[in-house]
Design goal:
The protein has 367 residues and is mostly helical. It is 69% helix and 0% strand. The protein contains 15 helices and no strands.
């Protein structure tokens, strides 16, 4: 059994697993299911896309899981600052990380391309991660584990009350439509530029508060994993129990406050926290406890440079052109039916090769 050290290999692999679906894994799986045409696989296909509004699919978990993982790393990355009483330096690090992610989000949205500041979209996935990380970090830095959990529960409760009890002008109380919900109303009042769906945005400002609960949940799990006095199997057991409890609580709450990813409802956050905890337990058990790592090396490459591949895939590097240049002949031989599968697989191979080169050169872009 491998002891927990300052870096959990399972976190890199889990982060890589999460990013894999964004960088082409979902498209490849969808193409394969479409090609096979097996009726038994059709229910899986719907989980490769986001839910339109109310409900949950596997693809809805990708974003929350990434925020959760950022929380798991907090106890490890914060430790040397807290033990040496360097809170000020830690705050500066957290603020810098949040600001850099917000700026990168603007870059990802194309703000630097057209410089149309009046009509730009200032909310973003990266900005959402940065702000949620900041809220969670402030709580983790200043409170012990029990009070972190209480604070997380309080955030979800307050968000629930705001969304259900505060009236929105022109819509009324407790309306959870894209236009009528309280979070979208706040975005229309405060956030400059354009919102994703005009009247609201899934990465809105108020929604960063419930999203921060995922990072707090991750930090609580990270504290447990960092504790060398607890047996590794007991850690897995506790995390699994916590995960099942969150799943059940999320589903129950969902009967009164529906699971809506685009609003980061409290039930959705609890439910995705449950799945995140279960995945963490599985990956920790397999990778860190049992030491099965070699088979996960490609995912580890992705997990070590997630920001790099996310930004580069935006268009900085044309992986599809690279794929056609290297594997164009193979795709033509494969024929029309198989070409989407071969294209998806070969694109992933090119991305992994790119990340392997960075790994060999010890180039890791972090914020």
């Amino acid at each position: 059994m491998q002891e927990v050290n300052n870096r959990l290999a399972s976190l890199d692999v889990l982060r890589g697993f999460d990013m894999f679906w964004i960088m082409g894994g979902s498209s490849l799986a969808g193409s394969l299911i479409s090609y096979l045409g097996w009726p038994c696989l059709q229910p899986i296909a719907r989980h490769l896309e986001h839910t339109e509004w109310i409900g949950f699919t596997f693809y809805d978990l990708i974003f929350p899981l990434f925020i959760f993982i950022s929380g798991v790393t907090m106890p490890f990355s914060f430790e040397r600052y807290l033990t040496s009483h360097q809170k000020q330096s830690l705050y500066l690090k957290v603020i810098r990380r949040a600001v850099v992610l917000i700026l990168l989000g603007w870059f990802y949205n194309g703000l630097t391309t057209n410089l149309d500041f009046a009509n730009a979209r200032y909310t973003s996935v990266l900005g959402h991660i940065g702000i949620a990380y900041f809220w969670a970090a402030v709580i983790v830095i200043n409170l012990r584990s029990l009070y972190q959990a209480i604070c997380a529960a309080g955030i979800l409760a307050v968000y629930f009350l705001l969304m259900k009890l505060v009236p929105v002008p022109g819509y009324g109380v407790g309306v959870l439509t894209p236009d009528g919900n309280f979070a979208s109303f706040i975005d229309r009042l405060i956030v400059p530029g354009e919102l994703l769906w005009g009247s609201g945005d899934p990465e809105g400002l108020l929604m960063t508060l419930p999203a921060s609960v995922l990072a707090i949940a991750g930090a609580l799990a990270g504290n447990l994993l960092k504790n060398r006095e607890i047996n590794a199997y007991r850690k897995c057991f506790v995390i699994i129990i916590a995960g099942v409890a969150c799943l059940c609580a999320g589903l129950y709450w969902g009967m009164y406050f529906p699971l809506i990813k685009k609003l980061w409802t409290s039930s959705f956050v609890l439910y995705t926290a449950g799945w995140s905890l279960l995945l963490l337990a599985i990956f920790y058990l397999v990778v860190d406890v049992w030491g099965i790592k070699k088979v996960f090396f490609p995912l580890m490459l992705v997990g070590l440079n997630p920001l790099t591949i996310y930004i580069c895939a935006r268009g900085i590097i044309d992986f599809k052109y690279m794929t056609d240049f290297i594997f164009g002949g193979v795709m033509r031989i494969a024929g029309t039916d198989l070409s989407p599968i071969v294209l998806g697989l070969c694109t992933l191979i090119c991305e992994i090769i790119f990340l392997y080169i960075l790994y060999r050169k010890k180039m890791f872009i972090k914020v």
